[in-house]
Amino acid sequence: MTGGEPDHLRFNILGTLEGWAGGTRLRFGGAIQERVLATLLFEPGRIVPVTRLIEAAWDEEPPPSAEHQVRKAVSELRRRIPRGAGVVVTDAPGYRIELGDGQLDLNEFAELLRVAHAAVGAGRTATAEAALRQALALWRGPVMAGRGGRVIEAAATAWEERRLTAAEQHFGLRLALGEAAELIGDLRDLISRHPLRETLRGHLMLALYRSGRGAEALEEYAAVRRLLVEELGVDPGAQLTRLYEGILREDLEPAPSPAEPRPAPATPVSEPGPADRGVCTLPYDLTDFAGRDDKLRLLLEKAGEPGGGGTRIIALDGMGGSGKTTLAVRAAHRLADHYPDGQLFIDLRGFTPGERPLQPAVALESLLRSLGVPDEQLPEGTEERTALWRVTVARKRVLILLDNAADPSQVIPLLPASSGCLVLITSRGRLVDLDGAEWIGLGMLAPEESATLLAETLGAERTAAEPEAVAELAELCGRLPLALRIAAARLRNRPRWTVAHLVERLSHETRRLDELSTGRRSVTATLELSYQALSASGRAGFRLLGQHPGTEIDVWSAAALTGTSVQEAEDLLEGLLDAHMMQQHALGLYSFHDLVRSFARSLPGDDAGGGALGGRLLPYYLDATEAACGVLFPDRLRMEFDVEVPSAAELPPLRTAAQAMDWLDREYHTIQLAMDREGDLADPACVVRLSRNLAFYLYTRSKPDEQVAQGLTAVRAARRLGDQRLLCLSLNNLGVAQWRVGRFREGIESVSEARRIARALGDEVGEAMSVGRLGLLHLDTGELAEAVRCLEQAVVLRRESGYATGEADSWANLSSAYRRLGRHHEAVAAAEEALRISRRVGAPGRVKLVLNDLAAGLLGMDQPERALAVLDEGLAPVDETRQTENHALTLALSAEARQLLGDTERALRDADRAREIVSRSGVRLRASEVENIAGRVHRRAGDPAQALRLHRLAFDHATALGYRAEVLDALTGLACAAEELGEKEAAAGYRTQARDLQAELGIGTSEGQ
């Protein structure tokens, strides 16, 4: 392609790999980029996992950095392809390529084949011939010009087969349209490259015969017969033999005239009509089949694709109860007309209660008898029966459904050798040693598919009456077809039950599996078979992993819980994944289906999980959080603990801040669940230290309510342990959490107790921490004199203890206290000292906090230009997911400074953005501050009505918290806004309340803002 619209994007893969943007040819970089792109192009619109791309790029010897290199290759492709980010799309667990009509020759080829198929079915031979001619013209040579690894070659081989089949069909259609002599040269050329294709030989023989060259046609038959005998030991097929005999007798129909075309001879393009299907032993097809439409469509598409030289094998794998057999039977019935010589079903009993898997010899006996082989002709041995089976189905079109396979050794002797057969297999685990099989995995149904299945099995009227309960029922059944059918059966058998009633019964995890049982069907029995098929070590590991509290499990936590190495844990997880006892939605993370987890937790064992959870998993999480906090919070107070918590578990890579934060983001909730699950059984020393580590994370991620809950857990554990030093630490941390949610009086009680303990222990570090936090709490309750006293003392104690970061915190809080008292010069000086120390110790997170205090002091001194310079430093660069409430305050202060400097438009924008951020943070303490500042900005911008609303919000929030200093600001703002709105009486009332509160707080009066 060398022209076209300037921005039109097109890729060609039927030949050398090409990409065009208008008239410009794209360069993709090196071989890795080309292989990655080609692999994506072979499956347009579908997700290709990173693991598959790695295999495509390097075959079986990828470098250690293969995953990174694939991602780099994708990034490079996006850079080189116009609007590449919208073409190569990230979609876990890999990538997919999004292309429209006319953008890929492969899609055009497939579409033209579909057009030809439809035209033949409608008797429009000329239309079909034209479509195939266009399709074949798209090919410029071998796919990827024959360059590529094993994965690309396998895909290319399939498409080359489709090309060859299309060429055979095209010659057949041209013969049907009356052509003959003009086909001979092209047919001989193609046969020279594919000498064993009997269809091509037949077309050549017919073209020669119709051209008056009957003797040459007979020589062609003799030549191909010799070749087949020498190469394969077989004679030509029945169709070619009949053609040969017709030429000998000269009784073939004459060639049709071009003016009167007739339908083409039977070729794979045409749909078989209803025919004698031979023997059929398929189970009945469910009339209420629902869901799996995409999988059924995929299976039928695969069955319709050319299968190369051997039997096509399509296999379904999935956990017990996922509907593999139902789907395979539905597909087999849909395909039956294509296999007129028979459709055979056999249950291999790989996972049948109370029975051993069927031996191949027994299965072969059943299959041979189905095809009419008498008992006296059945040999004894498996090999002999396999040979007879393959001879019996040779050159026949037979569909064989092998259900419930346990392993490849069961299946391989049952596979035909001829290309006319199709084998469908179902198995709970993917039979990785079964070469040549195309696998389709079945997971949970989609929510809408689950609803459809329930409507089909229970009745549309009943499900329509309770749509919310139906949706909840589907989730409680794990969207597993077996569980959904059992639930529907129970409801059908109990017409007085509502769907909501069954939902309530299923809501209790301990009895859920008992409820999902009816007649001979049971989810528990189905899962038990998969469980018993595991090795002894696999069963033990499965039971332990069932106790893991997280929804996702990585190899490191799995290794800790099972007491194994990371490599052994990964082998266990992968084995369970292969057996469909686990799922994987993201690379490196494993999860249980809800019902499988319930089953695992119901199993008895030598370790019900408690010892492993508290003795191995929690110590692992302690070590990991210590490592993560060491990276993220290097300036935090280093503490020595009297009680060690032993752990020998391997840790994940936590060397960078990004790694540490990503790991905590993913695991923190699981850690909390693990401590909750263990309760009083957990090692209290481990719980206290884990809680301290989580407190730093929860503070950073602005999760104040969770921080309080974690603080209470730590205090309970410390009291249980009886360690006064750990209790002092936990109470101080709880006090900070209570301060953040505005529970000031509770915080004062917690920190006061911590201070008493510290004094009794002679713990100077603990006392300094307590005094500083008391000052912070008194500050926000409006007890400003006490706040100043505590914070000035905390500065001295922190300095004497040598904890510089703590001293900086105390200076920063003292700055806020001075500012509240109107002592702005002292506030600025205190903030500058806090800033100096924070910079010296290398604490960038604290620097950002202190900049807010310094800017607030400068605004109080009427120095908005200096304040804005300080705030700009705090805003760039910024991660809005860390300490979001403090970022919101920075933005609000910046808005106020900008407005004072005349940039009202930007000020309003920043003020509204600050309110949006602080509302997301959930930190109510900061919300009233930001609302008051935003109120002032809107009032100065000439919108006193909006200012009134904002100050009223701030007043309500601050009053609920007892945050009296901010209540004062709200009252002052309300007075100013009401006055500008002409509400003189209301304004006077607000001013009176403000003066009274100022007197209580010991602050000099101020009539304006």
Q: What would you say this structure looks like, in words?
A:
With 1009 residues, this protein is of the alpha/beta class. The chain has 45 helices and 16 strands. The protein is elongated.
Through-space gap between termini: 70 Å
Cα-atom Rg, whole angstroms?
38 Å
The level of helicity is 55-70%
Strand order of the largest sheet: 7-9-10-11-8-12
Q: Could you report the average pLDDT, rounded to the nearest whole number?
A: 85
Largest sheet: 6 strands, parallel
Number of strands: 16
Strand content: 5-15%
Question: How would you describe the shape?
Answer: elongated
Helical run tally: 45
Poorly predicted sequence stretches spanning 5 or more consecutive residues: 1-6, 259-277, 1005-1009
Pick out its properties.
single chain, about 1000 residues, alpha/beta, six-stranded parallel beta sheet, three-stranded antiparallel beta sheet, elongated, disordered N terminus, disordered C terminus
In short:
With 1009 residues, the protein is an alpha/beta fold. It is built from 45 helices and 16 strands. The radius of gyration is 38 Å and the shape is elongated.
Give the secondary structure arrangement, pairings included:
Layout: E1 9-12, E2 18-21, E3 24-25, H1 31-42, E4 48-49, H2 50-58, H3 66-80, H4 84-87, E5 88-91, E6 94-97, H5 105-121, H6 125-137, H7 150-176, H8 184-193, H9 198-210, H10 214-232, H11 238-249, E7 279-280, H12 293-304, E8 312-318, H13 324-335, E9 342-347, H14 360-370, H15 382-393, E10 399-405, H16 408-411, E11 422-427, E12 437-442, H17 447-458, H18 460-465, H19 467-476, H20 481-493, H21 499-506, H22 509-515, E13 517-518, E14 521-522, H23 523-532, H24 536-545, H25 555-562, H26 566-578, E15 583-586, E16 589-591, H27 594-602, H28 610-632, H29 657-678, H30 684-700, H31 704-721, H32 724-740, H33 744-761, H34 764-781, H35 784-801, H36 804-820, H37 824-841, H38 844-860, H39 864-875, H40 884-900, H41 904-921, H42 924-940, H43 944-961, H44 964-980, H45 984-1001
Parallel strand pairs: 7-9, 8-11, 8-12, 9-10, 10-11
Antiparallel strand pairs: 1-2, 2-3, 4-6, 5-6, 13-14, 15-16
